[in-house]
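Supplementary Note 3. Input sequence used for the single-chain structure prediction.
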Amino acid sequence: MNDQVNTKRKIELLAPGGDVEAIKAGIVAGANAVYCGLDTFNARNRASNLSFDELNGVLRLAHRYNCEVFLTLNVVILEQELKAMFKLLNQLVNTTLDGIIVQDLGLFNLVKKYFPTLDIHASTQLTTHNEGQIHFLSKIGASRLNLSRELNLGEIKSLTATAHDQNVLTEVFVHGSLCIAFSGQCYSSSVSVGNSGNRGRCSQACRDEYEITEAGNKFPLNLKDNSAYFDLPELVDAKVDSLKIEGRIKGAHYVYTVVDTWRKQINSFVESGKLLADDSNLHKVFNRDFTNSFLTGDLTKSMFIDNPRDNSVNYAVDKSNAISVVQIQDVKTELYQGKNDLGLELKEKVKDININKIILTFEFVGKENQPLIVRTKASSDNTKVRTYEIQSDVSLIASDKSVIDQDSLIKRFKSFNDANHTIEDYSFEGLDSGLSIPFKELTKLKNEMAFLLNNNKEIIAPVELPILEKHPKVEQQIKLSILIADEKDAHLCDVTDADVYFKIPESLKKGCTKHIDLLLRNPRFIPWFPAVLIGKDYLESVKILEQVKPARIVTNNTGIAYKAFEMGIEWIAGPFLNTTNSYALYTMQEELNCAGAFISNEINKMQIRNIRRPKGFKLLYSIYHPILMMTSRQCFFQQTVGCKKPAIEDGCMLKCKKATTITNVKGVSFAVDKQKGGYPSIYNHEQFLNMDVVNDLSDLFDEFFIDLTNIGAGSKEEQDKTLLIKHFEGLLNSADESKIQLNNLVPIATNAQYSQGL
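The predicted structure, written as discrete structure tokens, is reproduced below.
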């Protein structure tokens, strides 16, 4: 047997479940765990999802098959939703749920404080890709995390080792759809149609059709599906804990086929150390063809496919070399027969399993001067009848007051009609009439029976959402702050008293001190760290902190936030940390000594208004910036203007500064931008300009921010930055002329997100 599988370490196969039938399919196909969502607070609102009663039924079914269940609560939470979320957590804590999958930093605070028995998994939406982020997530309460899909096997192995040192488990997506953008950092759907990916409403703009590009593509952002089917030995060697299959909007047939195929592959490898060569069943269900290029780090244009629709027929035809109409029809017939056979196989396996509730019958027995006895029989289609018996501590007495009759007992015990149980019958034949017992004894009996029916676990009493104190602004006079990305803009320090942030690029040359020297030369520059920092780029960014020792930073990356916390550096949470509620602020302050945060530009006035800051905490908001739609580790130019390089190289990030536009079939153009040292990104054709917030919410914010970098400008004419500063300062001082001038200076602008919100 292969040494790398000669281990007792569990390799979990984690299956998607968009509805009950898909969950059944995953269970019978051999999943060790399934992840699913309720009809609220989850990042796949296009899936059917589950009711709370169905969730409990799924828990009963899955646990009979030794399969765990994780619930997706993987969206950002709005302030006005906190009460509803807290109510849901009060329900979940009394289920047998094995874990919740979380994106919102505020949920970490709530769960850790008030629901410590709930296991927290960090969602892929948290874009976890460096060791500092693992320390950050471990500190705030994560027991496992989903690593970014863009990572290669070496990076996965290194980060998994770091996670295990923190007693944190790792998941890796091994099959299913691939986003071209970093998860949690894609705003294309939010910007284009008002449906935020951070709220589970992604409209998949990356699958949209565009006007044909110079490279000859209609779907230049459409990646093939992910499949690591033949990379299993390397993932096992990396000690990844969970192999996760994407697909909560896919049906039961898809889930069964993919999970069953992966189950057989894992079993073969564990038992013999050898892989199965046949992956044909994976091609019989929906797919866009397959790639493993993120895992191998071979980022070529072969990852793309110029068709977002199902490729299964095309694959079958190509593989069989069918040419004639008859040959093609024969191939299709064979493919559809194979699909049907898999469907029949699934149907046979699930025909006898269900999520029906446990049926209860209550029998009440009692005579004068004897205790009241309550017997309960619990039965389901899949288990034998269990009988529970309890009795009161005091005896029944004859009385015409507070008599326990049928109506009073039914009223007391009817609450057992709940998410897990249905009361079928009550029996009172053994109960004499005219007897009384204190009502507190009935309550005690009811609680004892609830304990027994809850697998001998105490019911956890509900907790009220605490009311947060409203603290005043840190500074009464609202400040302006600016962002630059080039030292040639240093002269702007002479025309304003605003805080000047300097954008550190996503990629840094190993051992190069350019940015360290720059920051030391310009003491007014406050380092601004980007959202994505992988591998050496994270380590080089840490060196900037260690050698510059800035008094204050802004970071959009939680790994840098953790390092700043360790070093005692004041840090502000940047706008790409997607902060939308008070408890996210409290998580960052209480756990990691955060000094302030940008509030997300995705939320509107009413959603911002009631956010309450911790004491001594600053709130910031960007009123002018290019509108980022998506950022990718892949190259947007391979499929648009074309590129002579066959694959992305190390130097691409540092040297390339291409720019182009793509135009969708509705005629809307977007800037495709690549700054030196930056990831390829796509920006909206409009700038974000929100002057309304200055009038609406100046009482809430300490600082309004403007982005004066040229990022996302594409071929647009560069603005007069001195003039922009002058008029933004005028805006903060209520100068009407400045508002007019800003509208003239930035004619193509929008604040739609501030109007529509999430």
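Residues 157 and 238 are 4 Å apart (CA to CA). The chain is about 35% helix and 20% strand.
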